TrEMBL record:
It comes from Dendrothele bispora (strain CBS 962.96). This is Homoserine dehydrogenase. The active site is at K221 (proton donor). Keywords: Amino-acid biosynthesis, Kinase, Methionine biosynthesis, NADP, Oxidoreductase, Threonine biosynthesis, Transferase. Residues 7-139 form the Aspartate/homoserine dehydrogenase NAD-binding domain. GO terms for biological process: homoserine biosynthetic process; methionine biosynthetic process; threonine biosynthetic process.
Amino acid sequence: MLVAVIGTGLVGGEFIKQLVSIPPETSPFSLVSLTSSTRTLWTPENPVISAASWKSSLAGATEKPDLQKLTKDLAQLISPSTRAAIIDNTSSDDVAAMYPVWLKAGINVITPNKKAYSGDLGLYEKILAASKESGARFLNESTVGAGLPVISTLKELVATGDKIKKIEGVFSGTMSYIFNEFSTGSPDGPSFSSVVSIAREKGYTEPHPADDLNGFDVARKLTILSRTISLNPASSSPTSLPSLQSFASVQTTSLIPKPLEGIPAGDEFLARLPEFDAEFDKMRKEASAEGKVLRFVGVVDPVNGQVKAGLEKYPVDHPFATSLGGSDNIIMFHTERYSPRPLIVQGAGAGAAVTAMGVLGDLLKLM
Ligand SMILES: NC(=O)C1=CN([C@@H]2O[C@H](COP(=O)(O)OP(=O)(O)OC[C@H]3O[C@@H](n4cnc5c(N)ncnc54)[C@H](OP(=O)(O)O)[C@@H]3O)[C@@H](O)[C@H]2O)C=CC1
Ligand SMILES: N[C@@H](CC=O)C(=O)O
Ligand code: NA
């Protein structure tokens, strides 16, 4: 299997490390291309095999990224015995827009990037159609819950005829970390802005942390789950989910203070966040006075036709308050079969190692 990686940042770098650490004598993969935002390496004659040297090889590449050329070059090498996969480890809309082209060309697509599956419904439908036409597959486990088996679990529930009554949980590693640290039931604790900065340092946030704090990252994940359920309409009948035009159709509460909306740079955004610490401290004190903690949760509810994300208060003995730590996600699947007790998936839901593992796991599924 020929593998081309686009995006060599936190997740991409860790993915390359995990991929090349499969012993060459057992690895079915050949890493033939690396692309960053500024350059591209095309090396099918001499595939990348070293975690120690790929960075210098890419840094020494002189070609600019050209996704059309990459598509052509890869497609030319596909044969009945040689398959190909592109791994998109960016958060780019432009890269996501290429999925239908790649799938049509017979190239499999694997990604933790949520943009294509939660963006415009038209792009999602083109992806489904292109995959059906060529038989090339798209896999996106790490788009929800990072490496946790969330998408695969949902696909199996749906494909085996279970009916989804409700999916609810904490879907953001960043939001989980922030509120696990910030709101413990006590009226006091670290400042909001300080825990947001640490979440970024730990690699949990999106490239721009505002994309987590505005709730959009959770809204995107809920959109992906809703669309996965809708692949089999019978799985949410007799009621149904709204057809989401994009993640923007999800009812979402943003945590971004109004004056900080639209700041394009993550660094400036974080530098100004302390101005609003007092507002968040007030919310923490109010929750504590009620014997509650704050948690940012998401719900996909086919029975009531609702998809929503927002900040809620939970009693200090609720599982969302007691059982989560670090960047943990918790996802509860309430279904016809898993009732009255839900099927629960829980564990680290962000960070390079667990996200890259979900991506590599998808690649292994292709084999
Ligand atoms: N971090 C996490 O815990 C999780 C992340 N994800 C998803 O994984 C993806 C990657 O996240 P992360 O690694 O943290 O982000 P980073 O910002 O660390 O890396 C993104 C990489 O994408 C590259 N890039 C951006 N635009 C383009 C482009 N047009 N063409 C080629 N390369 C491009 C950047 O290149 P350059 O190096 O040149 O700037 C950078 O290397 C995102 O979609 C994120 O939502 C999903 C689950 C968890
Ligand atoms: N920023 C995201 C990363 C994983 O999807 C999160 O915090 O959950
Ligand atoms: Na996952």
